[in-house]
Amino acid sequence: MVLTPIQALCIILAVSAGTQLTRWLPFWLFPEDKEPPVVVTYLGRVLPSAMMGLLVVYCLKGVDWLAAPHGLPELLSVAAVALLHRWKGNVLLSIGGGTALYMLLVQAVFA
């Protein structure tokens, strides 16, 4: 499908406006000088942990625990992520290290 320059411009403007709106909306709704609602504070406190738990469950849902290697690469990688994060407190290092370990395990060790 080929777009005319006007159509392309309209799409770019719509996407830009939507992006800017989602960036500015929290600052408009919750200015710095006002206390945010209790529910927003609560969600800000519990959602990061809930999302991490959801991602762990999603990553482990397809593991066949009864067939070799019985989820060992996944469990070792989850442990590595937890230990790296506890040690350094760096999310990027934790996720990157766990991913690198998992890829090493499934491609070289348990291949």
Task: Explain the overall architecture.
- With 111 residues, the protein is mainly alpha-helical.
- The chain is 76% helix and 0% strand.
- It has 4 helices and no strands.
- The protein has helices at residues 5-29, 38-60, 72-88, 91-109.
- α3 packs antiparallel against α4 (91-109).
- It is flat, with a radius of gyration of 22 Å.
- The chain starts with a helix and ends with a helix.
- The mean pLDDT is 94.
Keywords:
flat; single chain; 111 residues; mainly alpha
Short description:
By secondary structure, the protein is mainly α.
**Integer average pLDDT:** 94
Give the tally of β-strands.
0
Principal-axes geometry comes out as flat
**Measured distance between first and last alpha carbons:** 43 Å
- What percent of residues are in strands? under 5%
Unreliable stretches covering 5 or more consecutive residues: none
**Rg over alpha carbons:** 22 Å
Category by helix and strand content: mainly alpha
Largest sheet: none
Percent of residues in helices comes to over 70%
Element-level helix/strand string? HHHH
Number of helices: 4
